[in-house]
Amino acid sequence: MRTENRVLVAGGAGFIGSHLCEALIAAGREVLCVDNLHTGAKRNIEPLLGHRAFELYRHDVVHPLYLEVDRVYNLACPASPVHYQSNPVKTIKTNVIGTINLLGLARRVKARILQASTSEVYGDPESHPQRESYWGRVNPIGRRACYDEGKRCAEALFVEYHRQNAVDIRIARIFNTYGPRMHPNDGRVVSNFIVGALRGGPLTIYGDGTQSRSFCYVDDMVRGLTALMDCDEGFSGPVNLGNPEEISIGQLAALIIDLVGSRSSVEYRPLPEDDPARRRPDISLAERTLGWSPSMTLEEGLKKTIDYFDNLVLNNS
Ligand code: NAD
Ligand code: UDP
């Protein structure tokens, strides 16, 4: 009889992955965390290391792996532009070869497999808010292409393994996610602004700050990922997961300065190549099919994240 008990989390030592591992252990699953610790860290999973149901396997998914599991979450891939652009060829290999290896494993052991895809598949969108039916506007040769096209190829691989080999797949299109355990130096806007505000230094806005994003708290995201994995409906396409509360980057800077009670000023730098102008998920599909929607407000989630970085900055100063 197939169970759902033994779960592989590729990328489980990263930001979202470590919260997912914790939630799975709390739900009584056995978790095998596979990670090469490129952008993840052992300290993210420190509390789980002694747990009898948790195992860390240091491995690069670009190399095949032979394991017996019931479910596979594929989160292995650096997520921040700074990290994924530092070795773009490796980012493509992780998304393409790594995904083939995990899909091959899922096919062999008949495990259900979920892909952590991204809103980046929509590129710099002309359609707003973004629905799953929108095909996107991605520059295939720009600086973000290693990630965007890598993730698009991974979606295509998932769908073809499903069509050709009847692999039981799920695809989550994750929108900007934030919370404790974000990497402090990964250059992402929430971590940069919070660390900058706590240190009292200037916050750097790229462009004029009118570009928008919609930020989802990590606990809400993990709830969405597990709901999608556990949904027995069968694959009917990718599902957006994110928080539709949209905010401009300029407003985010002002909000974080206010919540930290900081005297930080704001500086402006040029906008990076292909930086999307607007982003907001249409989550009606997830609401309808999974009964899922995020519950954390941006202000409350930011307060929790500020507390986390406050401890980190204090401990390292
Ligand atoms: P992260 O960088 O913190 O986590 C990624 C993890 O994958 C790290 O632990 C890293 O060491 C591991 N990894 C990278 N390459 C690997 C390889 N070749 N073999 C084994 N392990 C490898 O990023 P995150 O923010 O936790 O994102 C997790 C997943 O969610 C990623 O796939 C990312 O693309 C996706 N996602 C994240 C966001 C977000 O806002 N954080 C948005 C959209 C999609
Ligand atoms: N950004 C910024 N200052 C920073 C970091 C990022 O103005 O210190 C901007 C960035 O140009 C983008 C937005 O904030 O418009 C979100 O950036 P992030 O890298 O967090 O996510 P992504 O661009 O991948 O959505």
Pick out its properties.
317 residues; alpha/beta; Rossmann fold; UDP-galactose 4-epimerase, domain 1; 2 domains; seven-stranded parallel sheet; two-stranded parallel sheet; 9 helices; 17% strand; globular; binds nicotinamide-adenine-dinucleotide; binds uridine-5'-diphosphate
Structural notes for this entry:
- The protein is 38% helix and 17% strand.
- The protein is α/β, with parallel strands linked by helices and 317 residues long.
- The protein has two domains: 6-178 and 217-241, Rossmann fold; 189-213 and 245-281 and 296-315, UDP-galactose 4-epimerase, domain 1 (Alpha-Beta Complex), CATH 3.90.25.
- It has a seven-stranded parallel sheet, with helices on both faces. The chain has a two-stranded parallel sheet with strand order 7-10.
- It is globular, with a radius of gyration of 19 Å.
- It starts with 5 loop residues before the first strand and ends with a helix.
- The model has no long low-confidence stretch (mean pLDDT 96).
- It binds nicotinamide-adenine-dinucleotide and uridine-5'-diphosphate.
